[in-house]
Protein 1
Amino acid sequence: MMKKINPINYKLLRPQVDLSHLNFKTTDEMNSFTHFVGQERALHAIQFGVNIESHGYNLYAMGPSGIGKRSFVQAILEAHAKKLPVPSDWCYIHNFAMPDKPIALQLPPGLGRVLQEDMKSFIHELGASILAVFESDEYHSALMKINKYFSREKESNSKAEKTPSLYKKKHKREKKLQLKMVSIVLKPIFSKLKKKYKSFPSVIAYLNNIKQDVMENIADFIRQDEKTNLYTFTYENPVLTKYKVNLLVDNAELKCAPIIFEEAPSYSSLICRIEHTSEMGALVTNFTLIRAGDLHRANGGYLLVEARKLKANREAWEALKSALYSQEIRIKPLENEYDSIKPVSLEPMSIPLKIKVILLGDRKTYYSLCQHDPDFTELFKVAVDFDEQIKRNKKNTKLYAKLIATIVKQKKLRPFHISAVAAVIDYSSRLAEDVEKLSTHIRDIEDLLLESDYYAGVARKKMVKEAHIKQAIQAQIHRMDRTRQLYYEDILRNFIIIKTEGSAIGQANCLSVRRVGNFSYGHPTRVTARVRLGKGKLIDIQREIKMAGPIHSKAGLIIANFLASRFNQDLPFSLSVSLAFEQIYCWTDGDSASVGELCALLSALAEIPLLQSLAVSGSIDQYGEVQAIGGVNEKIEGFFDVCKARGLSGKQGVIIPAVNIKNLMLREDVVDAARLKKFFIYPIETIDDAISLLTGLPAGKREKRGNFPKDSVYFKIEERLKEYSKTRIKSRLIEK
């Protein structure tokens, strides 16, 4: 007796939101939602990661692009950052003992900026004070006395060889005068600064060093015009650079711990950049040309980095790991060994590092780092794994509606009607490919909201409604479906042979999915099978020409084993089979066509035609059980579009695995056709179901005596295989 397989009820083809669950009319009535829907696992992981203070507990937030990892992490970090103090300012100052090793100066937040401005003012005061000394009557009067004294000494000198000694004494006396008078005018300046920074010994030591350096280099600051004898103070004098402050990290404006995001990590962006200037053909630098990296700016807080780009930049990745291991920021400038000009560089004092680093990336990068980089598992012990889907239940549906309302308000869009919100939630299930799930790809949802608002604006509406959601979805498809349109056009013009009526032996319509950018569409394909007497070999033409992937090849082997175990187990398997995807000229992989391939093969063996008005998609195991496939909505819609373009006959439809019913979120026109019984979607559990639907005959089940019923497909197949086996055995005997 033939098993009856009913088509899926049209009400199950596109489950919709129950509007009674949503107690609002527009999104204006809802409060903003400050949390993320679902993601409890990720939430617990990140809270653990940011609270534990042990070394090595940095985080890796993983999930596909567009899922909202950065926004989620940033929101949690902002809440935690408010509990932490504003970190210190950091400055680099001149090291008078070792100029190539600048000193790192730690100051309370905001004081670095003050010190920098104070030292700028000091340089100007220094210039004014020294000029005042050299231009004062007191200085000139004392200088004249020195000159007169040594003039008399020179005139009374009878021995010329003593003249150089007199000049030396005179110069020494002049310098002593300068030091005395400059010391007097600088004393109040330094006293004022020391009083201001008396709580910071490192600053006091710095000021003492400056004072000593000024006294030793007074002559370098002043230039006297030979014609006018007037003095000038050169503020551009490189010597004055020593008295400047390089404010590396200025946290004066922060209210809490910093959160820094680096999208394009490199050594210079993460660690630091030391700039150089060219002087007489040489590249030179000084401490004022040291530029802060992300680690400096995020020190005392959090640093978010794109993992994939960081992994691709070896220098940056190794430098970051080194900093996390040592808990210091050590600046070691990179030098290209092939540079013809070697720059003069610095070795700045290291800066203590206290930071949480959060890498944002996909799972593939995470697993690759775990496998190939032992340092990674030591330094990034907290995995923050984001769910791509959440359950579609009453609670989450309400939360999702609030999330939509929040995005609408954040982006300052028109209010969304309840019907529009419901349409967006349905679209989310379509993205998730599961009516029991909602997608967490927030970027896609946000794009849909923005584009729907645009179409409402074009229509001069003050509110976004369901029609605008549908218009935006259709527009997204239209922008990307040129390839699909061309393929379907080739089918309709018979350049690509896909039959939607009649029947044929050894041919089945299979369904696959093609992806173009972010757009996927159903791709109907004709599969053919030919059989003849042979030695039990199944030739998959796609595999033989190396245009098939390993999953496709696996499916072919499963088909061969199914045949060998289902029929004539006590006789040698004596046929040769060839399978081909007709008019497919590109790489093929996947096993969702294996049900169709097997049906085409069974048809060829039984010499029973298959209905061409039906297309089939499904994966098969060695026992003939049909397994789930992906892209079921696109596959169904693809065959429907071809049938609709030719005219729906009321006999056309698609065969899918029964388990995929919960993945159905079909277009409304497909649902309408199913409701009007112009297009059917049949669920199957076994290959027997598929072959029965495609042939209109029972597949067959072995009776007590071990034989298949004579009116079954399998009876004819087994009889033919017996003939092949007998013929092969007979030919062997003749050969002997």
Protein 2
Amino acid sequence: MFHQPVRRISFLTLLLLSACSAPSAPAGPPTPAPGTPPTGPVATPDELAALDRRAAALALRAASGDPAALRDALAEAGIAVRRLNGEVVRPAAQPALGLALAADDPEALAHLQGQGGAITLGDLAQTLQTVWPQADPARLPALIQADLRAGVGSAVPTVRFWSRFVVALGGPANDLLTSQTPQQVPLNAAQQSLLLLRLSGGLARLAQSRGVTVPTQPPALLRAQDAAPPCTFGGTEGTIMDGAASVITTGVGELLGYLDSVSATPGESPVDAAAGLLGNANLLLSYLKFTLTFASFQLDLTTDTDTLQRTQSTVHDGDGVVTARAKVWYDLSANWQYANCFRLAFNVAGLDFSAPNAGAVEGADLRWRVFAAQGSGSYADQHTSVVAARPGEEVMHDKTDAAGVAELHFEGLRQKEDLGDAPKAVEKTGEVSVQATIKSAALAADLVDALGTGLGGLGGLVGMPAELLYRMWPISSTLPLKVRDWAPACSDVQGDTCWTGKVTVQDRRKEETVLLDPTKKPAGTDLETADAVAVYTITGGSGISEHSHNAALDAQATFKSDYAHHINYDAAYAVECANGSQRTNIQKNTSKEDSSAQVAGDDRLGLTLEPGGSYTLNLSYMYGAKTRAVPGQIKTTTYFKGGCNPYGDRSDARDVPNERTHSWGGFKVTGQASTQNGVTTLTGQQTFTLRVDGLPTTRTVTWTIHRIEAP
């Protein structure tokens, strides 16, 4: 069994699940007055330039899912990393932004980042509008863009680093700073998370400046599976290190100012309005953490073998089928943080994760891809049709079953050309991959329902755009594949080259004549047809050297033809008898000849190949145009009934011995050869019109010939 499991991620994302009681924590630093910006040493231009380069370098690494790069970037952006008990494991650079993530959050974020999913800045604006219904979603992307532009030019090192890192995460093709349509700019997992985190901190700081106490104590860890609820999914306790350090005027000032202006409810007291700001901060953090829970979805991909042997046939696929099996599941290991609180929620919703299929994700949407590389040059040249899913397999929208499992069966495709005798094996590389999204998965809906009913405090989270909640970030896995393919080879190599290939000559002959009765009216047809096919399978050759451009190609030849000559005459016409009366003559004649012939033997084709690649391929009559006489019979019937003289009536049928000659003619074609990797290929098709055995004929010559240079 060959498999590649997706790396397990700790259950970091339930950081905001907390017990109703929290332990005391050491007192933090003095809280500055509301509105006080971060302070610290003034950075020199050289130091700011070095910081900009550092942000770009870390973004390049973090964009591909490097957790170490993400942890380093968080610290330099003024965001701490701490354990649930409040212990700081990665301090923030100064001046700190007053924000913190759980110890395993960077790894989860890196995992999601590595999966490559994205939403747009417009999607994020829709999310914010669910929290601020009065906000204009068309304005929000431009406000975020304006805040980022201000941040990249900030003299505060952490604010500057945060802004430049967020922008650089999108890469040069997704410019958050200058795009004329910011709502369409893609946001990856890390960008969305950092924007939500920064906005939540700014909201908390704004609430604090208006007299609201911002909790900064870490939540307590539930120790027993039966610990008493309630558990809360939201709350700033796990994320806000120091509410006073989250400054309104830098980082997200434009966006905060606008959201503040559309937050007030008529008649609402300033205290209630400030509390609402903190509630919105909690709600955004809940959404952020809910998104990160999808890092705990796992995808295992296995195959029953890592090697596929392609068929040698040009007629059928198969001769080797591989089964790939994908399993999507959700890990609720008992030792993960807050797993017990999470279990409580699922138990309330009636989901039992103690069952054998615990965590199976039913209904996940899967997209399969399987290929083998062939050739060189462009992508299309290197990924031609060598392997493919079997007919009837769902590739674009496969679904996992109740056990979270889906399978794909794939096989090698038929050869595009005849390989000749004893083809040689060619080893190629390929891969099978699968990408899963949880949008349609039953567990995604269960997750929302369970948290809403079992944990409490979720509030407006279930009102977030369902499309964003269920789409999340795709997860994928890829396995390497070995493919044994085949290439033409000669059975007898002569000299320093090997010749192989096939030439087919097909003649189609047809002539039809309308037969007239004595009154010149149509009364029947005379139809003569012949189809002849000659196939030359090249087994070797000699010639084509630096001194000679000519080669003689030995071939095994098979000839087959079918001939038919059918005459049908059926007439009834008026005649005048000697006594002046009118009578009717009836005359019917048929003649039917069908003949077939087959010949097999050795033959030889002539080839002239010029240094520039132009060539002439021929089979002249003197080298092997074939004829064959085939004995047979011609069956005839005759019927005549005279209207004037009944003594002349007759009716008979007979078989007439006959000998039909079948023939297969020569040809002469031209073309331009191509050479790649030591193989010269001559291929083409030409059609001619001529007369053969007195019949108008269409002759089509099709050829593919390889000259393989000896290593």
Protein 3
Amino acid sequence: MPNSFGLNRSLGGAIGAIALVSLLSSLALYMTQTQQNEAIDARGRSRQIMSSLDAFRVAMLNQETGLRGYLLTGDDSSLEPYRSGRIELDQTLVDLQRLVTENRTETDLLVQAQDAARHWQTDIGEPAVHQMAVSATRDEAVGIEMKGDGKRLFDQFRTRLKAIQDSEEQIFAHQNAVVEAAKHNSLLVLVVGAIITLLICAGMGIAINRLIVQPLVLLAQVMRRLTHRDLDVVVPSIKQRNEVGEMARAVEVFKKGLIELDRTSLLRVTADTLPAMVGYVDNKRRVGFLNGEFSRTFDLGQGDVSEVYGKPLIDVFGSTPFPGARLELETALGGKDTRFEQRLFRPGRPSRDIEAFYRPHRAPNGTVLGVVTLLTDITDRKRMERRLAQQARDLLRSNEELEQFAYVASHDLKAPLRGIENLVSWIEEDLEGVLTGDTQTNMDLLKSRVRRLESLLDDLLAYSRAGRADDQSDAVDTRLVVEELAALVSPPEGFEITADPSLPKLQTPRAPLTQVFQNLIGNAIKHHDRPSVGHVMVAAAPGEGVTEFTVTDDGPGIPDRFFDRVFGMFQTLKPRDEVEGSGMGLAIVKKLIERRGGKVWLSGGEAGRGLKVHFTWPEIALGKHDDTDR
């Protein structure tokens, strides 16, 4: 036998190479990303240090400015910048000491700058303030500031701060270069990894086509010819050293098996393995072949079914007639395929349902030599079909009862609600002039809740009625419907409702489609956060057997995670005290659309605002809208 290279090993190696490339690419990306993140962190630390250095300078300048103002005016309020500068300096030094702790040079420079600042405070600032507070020593206070020691100390800490800043600017520039290099390296890794992966995949595709697809196509052609008993066909790829070659050699064995089967009549062995009754009846109504399933099903009373070969059907199947022995078998012997179902009654045994298929067997000249019969026991399948049919009827009845319950519940609950509302009104009349602010608020809240419950019941009743008695088709100009609704819903002043010219004329029930448009437009108006400048656009696009409508608004929109939730019953995204509504509008829309065989879904608007409601509506299109007929 030829040595086998093994397709699974070759493909596994290619897949392993792809995995290795992916792993190396991921590792390289991780390293460059880590380098980039470290550089970004270091750059951010440099920004903080430079910002704190500026704060250091400002704090010292504030102290100097406050001291000079105090020396000039003698007004204690002039010292406010001096005092606030001391506090800000302390806070800034804490931040700088924390930020430069890892840089020894900057730490030393900061200590020197701090020492200069502290010497200025102790040698210049504090003595001048104390002496200025006493009238007799004010000239001395001015002299302290005029000596020049303050300028020397200021120059010292400015020089140290400048050195720290220069160092951090160099660090910042270096880290910027590191970030840019990391970005470039990440892109390079992605491109190289993608190219290598594509090359490996292309190589795999070529190899699969050459080593697997083409040989399998040829083997499939050989198998088709073998099924037509063309035993002269040559099996290809027998010498191929892989699994396809193994398959080709298996086909060669199959071919030889067919030849041997014709020689030794192994058809019976094959047929006996089938879970169906396979037989052959010749054109003289004699048994030519029966498999073992026939013997088990019909209890022929023979140890070997081959003992009945050549006997008339009526002799073999005496107590239980052969299925379709008259009309169906006669039809098949006449040259037509025949398929039928029949209940099989057997003495002393449960009846069974069978499905039969009879196919004529013809000689090369077209003469019908007999009929091949295939009988399959479908008792379990029929039982399951009856059970499913019963469950479907039960489900239909349950749905009807549920809709009837919703209708009755919503209808019958209105009367007590009206009674409650009347009682509240009577109580308010009886207690007029006595009701306090909180009590009146609670009474108003009670009436609001009663009205909301009544609205909820109305919506529940509308939901239970949605889709009923709406099968009467009509010629509907959807653009005209939207324009009429634009006036009917009474939008706020400045709110615009646009019917796009793409809206078609349809042959469809008018009422449910109108209600869908009304609910969607009303929903967009009710939930708009800027109704004075709001806009709703209704457009359409043709599809295969349906029209896809889109209702687009520019309101606040809905987060993606709530796209499915909003179509549920009683679902609102805001508390009902903020937005009046029962949460039934979109549930009714969904029910109306799905009863027509359509579907509805949401998508986000543009620029992070707005919402698009898409729905399909099966219909008979009467043509696109033409403005010339308006």
Protein 4
Amino acid sequence: MHDAAACLVADGELVAAVEEERFNRIKKTNRFPAGAIRACLDLAGVAPGDVDAIGYYFDRDLVDLGLGNFHVATPVQPVRWGVDLLQERLREHFDWEVPADRIMFTRHHLAHAWSSFARSGMADALVVVMDGRGENVSTTVHLAGSGEMRELKSYSVPQSLGLLYQEAIGHVGYGFGDEYKVMGLAPYGDPATYREQFRSLYALRPDGEYDMTPPIPDINPTVAPFYEVGFRARRAGEPVTQEHKDFAAGLQETLEVLAMHVITHWARRTGAKRLCFTGGVAHNSSLNGLLLRSGLFEEVFVHPSSHDAGAAEGAAIVAAARLGTPHTRVERLVSASLGPDLGTSDEVERTLRAWDGIVEVERPADVVGATAELLAGGAVVGWAHGRSEFGPRALGNRSILADARPAHNRDRINAMVKKREGFRPFAPAVTPEAATDYFDLTATEADHGFMSFVVHVLEDRRAELGAVTHVDGTARVQVVTPAANARFHELITRFGELTGTPVLLNTSFNNNAEPIVQSVHDVLTTYLTTEIDVLVVEDFLVRRRQPVTMALDDLVLKVRPMTRLRQDWRPGEEVSGEVYLDYSFGPSAKVSPTVFNLLAAADGESTVAALAGTLTDEVREELVSLWQQRFFALSPKP
């Protein structure tokens, strides 16, 4: 499934967790999480044989029905069922023989619910799971407490709010996984413009019920009302018009109306004072901010990995319970830093200095102080430290940082580093001591350490925080405590001492073509293929020696496991070459004959110069562009 991940739970404690995309470098990958499993075992210092059971985050019947459908549609493929496939993959990657009775499937929403409640620190709570779909449901409401998770209500797949949002965003040129972009676009629009069209899609009923307009068979249900008013769907790459902004605003309002209709009813029906909100929809931080402002609950918790990756943890918790281990809970999750680290200091330095032809490496006596001064001086800094974060957001260990004050920093990083749309907002990271001086965190208790809630920036502070205040006066705030991330907290504090504003712009350390960085090699690759000013990796400061285009000759070119080349031509026409990445919706690019031949000859050991000889300026620019898009990897010769 998408968002493939693995985690390791021991005696109720979440020991390690990481998504497979961090290793295979495919966003939202659906490939078997062999790299993630290996990382979890290594972090815990255990062997496969030490593992008591394996949990899978969907019901066995659904898995097998899906596979059965695949068998019917593709009769040339061998017949395999869920347990068989899992045993096969574990044997293939780890020589791990797992008995069938130790592979335990669980219902998807139950896995989501336990992953959230187990890390909430709450004794009891209303637990609402809201996503695209589980097995045959799209929202499930539970009441949790005393070691039990009691289901109160489920909503059908045709009522799915996650699927409604996902299906609708195609109107503004986006697809699966881009929901957060449309959420960021919404504040630029007026929801009233298309309110009538969106309201035609649903009808609210008493007691938290609602109906969705029956769709035309095989037609996206959001198409008809907008087709009737002549709405022109935006295509990817086209300019965003006011109509598209208004559409995004109307869609966000629709999600909020329906979600609040459900949650409000069950809050009042049960009298619950605490809420765990999870599932993919719970990553809609604007909706989460509305939940805080509603005053429905005294406390709200949103797991930092509420999407499907986080359900792996819940599946492990349920598997442990089936073995007789009670649903033990730990204190509230303080840090999402649950993935692998960057290595020892010596390993990090050795990797950095291997790139000596391109970068210069310095080890200052006070790297945090030096970084604070660089940020105060206007630098955009790549910051990599400690264990990687579990979930879609960088929280100070794999981050790009900048001064949160100048508004032009938002535009600069969007255009020159992230290479994305200018309307996309960035998050402010602030110390707990200063948080309420800048942001209205509301009277509802919540953990703001995971960037889960959009809150209002205090009106008299909005001009001061020009780079992180969104067009509607809000921000997706991150409050950084010493317990969660001591080094990042110290950096923000030191920056505040220099500038008077203890707030930094924090965004994920990646470009538009890749997931968040994991290793030192990933960190260097992203630094060298963006316009980040300076790189900080653990205790080391790294700067470019020369333009990357002039340093290609001595680097080894290695195609990725999914890199493919193809040529196409018609008689009488010039041969056209293309490179592409062989996975669902993988990118492709036309390439010149010289670069096509160079890629075809790549053996993972030869340098670019050895493969291509003398490089022209045009070939150099083409290679750097393809490297930016991650069609291949470059590294120093061993």
